[in-house]
């Protein structure tokens, strides 16, 4: 981490409101053609130059640290006097996406090399950003607030005051692309009536507001976005129309299509006679319609507009292929509608190989798109419902970053965030958060995911040679090992782990107690990784004994069994066996094809994407995309079984690429259709086909 020092600026916020929920501040300044803005803050800001989005930030960091953007604004300053506008939202709620810390902004504007505006001093004007409705529901359990607007608004000048000093560090990662992609077609249009649905969407992000999940209760809401959106009862009328100019009469709608799922800020222009506009969106269509709560989210934005012309852009980034615009105005015209993309910069991505295979070409392009959308400042699981920096997911995405870019820049930010704070509130000492930066007020953690941090750390060292970060992480790594030792039984096996023991999205997650063998297989690899990273020979020997014990206790003579439970004080195998357990055994090195040749041959020959049609082993529970199927693909790759690997890639992933242009969390479209780990398929495809581009 490199410290950053502002020359004049000091952190400020609206006086007395640093800890208030969902407060937004609006700042303006003027500059010439040679301008630079150094800025950071909490929680999120957008910077506009002459009405064009210049930046969204900051890059995320761990508790107590704030990354600074150094923005060269000259390319957007096309006038003698240019207008800088900054919107900053202070959320002050816990989430998987952003940490819960007091609001502030710190910025200084340079004009021709001289500071002309700085927070805590002169040059900026400050207003309360009343355009955005403050008291709204959370977007999801994992993310802070959804968006509603009342425009035009009468903004109120406010007084800002200095806040506590902060620790500033450099951004550390590249700036994202903000390219604009227009919606390609209107795929449905027609009328709607407003009426109460039989049942309203009501998930934990609505029902469970408390100190454990901060937000506004239902009674406090000024606009209940999901309920208002559910009242738009549309008559589905498929069509195929161009999107250049879309006219909406009283109580009509249009569904726009991007042709593939992308991530960014929803942007459009509208001329309206005045009324309510609701924009709802999702990755797919269900029954020909947008199901904006499909992911357990409130994927909708409400605009209450007085008559006039507006150029609008969402404040938060969203992931979508389809967007439905519903208007109750007598007349509205929508133009220039699309997405201002928020992705890893395309210029840093290696060129694609020549596959001479349509399916592999589709899958590779989907992998690159999935990577770019999930890799901006950290690795994310998905850019939609969570935008969270999950461990385990990151192990796979880190390999993708290096394969596609030859760098591990984002990975460094991601890994160092976990070692920034002195301790993590809400989870036991020694444990790591399952995703970070985040706050888990409900005390939930995934013990397995903390092991993946170390497994990834070992590969990071090999990729980068960054011994400084490895040294900085040592205390955290050994603290984690000490935590796990408290759960070792007399055989050295972990048992009765607490909180959320996660193996993969399948039957495996129902077989996690009392002694879970996939978890212990990962524990073996975790210990081996620590031993290799820090030269701990004693721990290496300890790990070898653990592997022997897993083989002794778990292997049934044909399969590795997932778990043992205690019966009358004795651990007894349940006899339950999953496909993913077998893959964990080989992936971690507990099993090898030399030790278990028959099992290996069975997995290669009789398992894979066709097994649900031709299931020779119905008692072995299926794996899912995250992560069992990917462990399988990795094993095929390691053994050089490239033909089998490519057949599996086509079978597991091509239908995803065809439907959304991205790769999914599960093998069905019932959850995220854009999951960062899934981009790892690009690693294998580049290794096989990409010799000329590496």
Describe the structure.
With 694 residues, the protein is an alpha+beta fold. It folds into three domains: 12-170, Jelly Rolls; 180-195 and 231-341, Galactose-binding domain-like (Jelly Rolls, Sandwich); 346-689, Glycosyltransferase, CATH 1.50.10. Helices cover 27% and strands 27% of the residues. The strands form seven sheets. Strands 11, 15, 16, 17, 18, 19, 20, 21, 24, 25, 26 and 27 form a twelve-stranded mixed β-sheet that branches. A six-stranded antiparallel β-sheet has the order 5-4-7-2-10-12, with no helix packed on it. Strand 22 and strand 23 (289-290) form a beta hairpin. Helix 6 packs parallel to helix 8 (517-534). The mean pLDDT is 97.
| CATH level-1 class of the largest domain | Mainly Alpha
Query: What do we call the CATH topology of the largest domain?
Result: Glycosyltransferase
Work out the number of β strands: 32
Helix/strand/pairing category: alpha+beta
Number of discrete domains: 3
**Biggest β-sheet: count, sense, barrel?**
12 strands, mixed
Strand content: 25-35%
Note the gap between the termini.
29 Å
C-alpha Rg (nearest Å): 26 Å
Summarize the amount of helix as a percent range: 25-40%
Detail the poorly predicted runs.
none
Tertiary shape: globular
Mean of the pLDDT scores?
97
CATH architecture call of the largest domain? Alpha/alpha barrel
């Amino acid at each position: 981490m490199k410290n950053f020092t502002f020359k004049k600026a000091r952190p400020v916020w609206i006086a007395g409101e640093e800890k208030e929920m969902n407060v937004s501040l609006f700042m303006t300044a003027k500059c010439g053609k040679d301008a630079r803005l150094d800025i950071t803050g909490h929680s999120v800001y957008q910077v506009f130059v002459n009405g064009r989005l210049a930046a969204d930030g900051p890059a995320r960091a761990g508790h107590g640290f704030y990354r600074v953007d150094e923005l060269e604004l000259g390319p957007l300053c096309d006038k003698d006097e240019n207008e800088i506008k900054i919107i900053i939202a202070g959320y002050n709620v816990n989430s998987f996406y952003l940490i819960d810390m007091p609001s502030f902004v710190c910025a200084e504007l340079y004009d021709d090399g001289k500071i002309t505006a700085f927070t805590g001093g002169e040059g900026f004007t400050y207003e309360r950003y009343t355009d955005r409705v403050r008291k709204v529901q959370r977007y999801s359990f994992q993310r802070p607030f959804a968006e509603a607007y009342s425009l035009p608004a009468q903004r109120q000048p406010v007084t800002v005051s200095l806040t506590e000093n902060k620790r500033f560090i450099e951004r550390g990662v590249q700036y994202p692309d903000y390219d604009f992609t227009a919606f390609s077609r209107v795929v449905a249009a027609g009328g709607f009536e407003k009426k109460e649905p039989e049942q309203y969407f009501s998930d934990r992000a609505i029902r469970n507001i408390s100190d454990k999940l901060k937000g506004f209760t239902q009674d406090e809401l000024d606009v209940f976005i999901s309920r208002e959106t559910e009242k738009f009862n549309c008559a589905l009328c498929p069509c195929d129309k161009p999107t250049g100019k879309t006219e909406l009469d009283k109580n009509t709608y249009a569904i726009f299509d991007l042709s593939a799922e992308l991530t960014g800020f929803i942007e459009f222009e509208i001329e309206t006679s005045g009324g309510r506009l609701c924009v709802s969106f999702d990755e797919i269509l269900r029954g020909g319609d947008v199901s904006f709560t499909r992911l357990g989210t409130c994927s909708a934005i409400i605009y209450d507009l007085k008559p006039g012309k507006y150029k609008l852009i969402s404040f938060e980034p969203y992931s979508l292929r389809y967007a439905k615009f519903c208007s109750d105005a007598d007349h509205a015209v929508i133009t220039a509608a699309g997405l201002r993309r928020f992705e890893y910069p395309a210029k840093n991505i290696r060129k694609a190989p020549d596959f001479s295979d349509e399916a592999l070409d589709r899958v590779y392009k989907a992998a690159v798109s999935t990577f770019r959308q999930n890799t901006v400042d950290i690795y994310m699981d998905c850019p939609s419902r969570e935008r969270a920096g999950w461990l385990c997911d990151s192990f796979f995405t880190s390999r993708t970053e290096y394969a596609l870019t030859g760098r591990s820049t984002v990975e460094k930010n991601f890994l160092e965030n976990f070692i920034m704070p002195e301790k993590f509130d809400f989870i036991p000492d020694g444990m790591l958060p399952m995703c970070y930066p985040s706050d888990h007020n409900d005390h939930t953690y995934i013990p397995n995911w903390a092991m993946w941090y170390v497994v990834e750390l070992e590969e990071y060292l090999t990729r980068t040679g960054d011994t400084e970060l490895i040294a900085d992480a040592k205390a955290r790594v050994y603290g984690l090992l000490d935590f796990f030792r408290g759960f070792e039984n007399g055989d050295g096996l972990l048992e009765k782990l607490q909180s959320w023991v996660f193996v993969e999205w399948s039957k495996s997650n129902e077989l996690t107690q009392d002694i879970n063998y996939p978890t212990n297989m990962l524990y073996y690899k975790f210990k081996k990784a620590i031993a290799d990273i820090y030269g701990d020979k004693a721990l290496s020997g300890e790990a070898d004994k653990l592997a022997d014990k897993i083989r002794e206790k778990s292997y049934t003579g044909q399969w590795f069994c997932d778990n043992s439970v205690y019966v009358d004080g004795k651990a007894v195998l349940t006899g339950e066996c999953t496909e993913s357990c077998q893959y964990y055994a080989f992936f971690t090195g507990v099993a090898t094809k030399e030790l278990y040749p028959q099992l290996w041959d069975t997995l290669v020959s009789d398992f894979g994407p066709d097994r649900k049609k031709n299931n020779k082993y119905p008692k072995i529970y299926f794996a899912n995309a995250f992560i069992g199927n990917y462990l399988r693909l990795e094993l095929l790759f390691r053994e050089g079984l490239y033909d089998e690997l490519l057949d599996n890639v086509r079978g597991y992933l091509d239908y995803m690429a065809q439907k959304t242009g991205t790769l999914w969390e599960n093998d069905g479209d019932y959850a995220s259709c854009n999951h960062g780990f899934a981009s790892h398929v690009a690693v294998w495809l580049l290794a096989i086909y990409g010799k000329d581009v590496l």
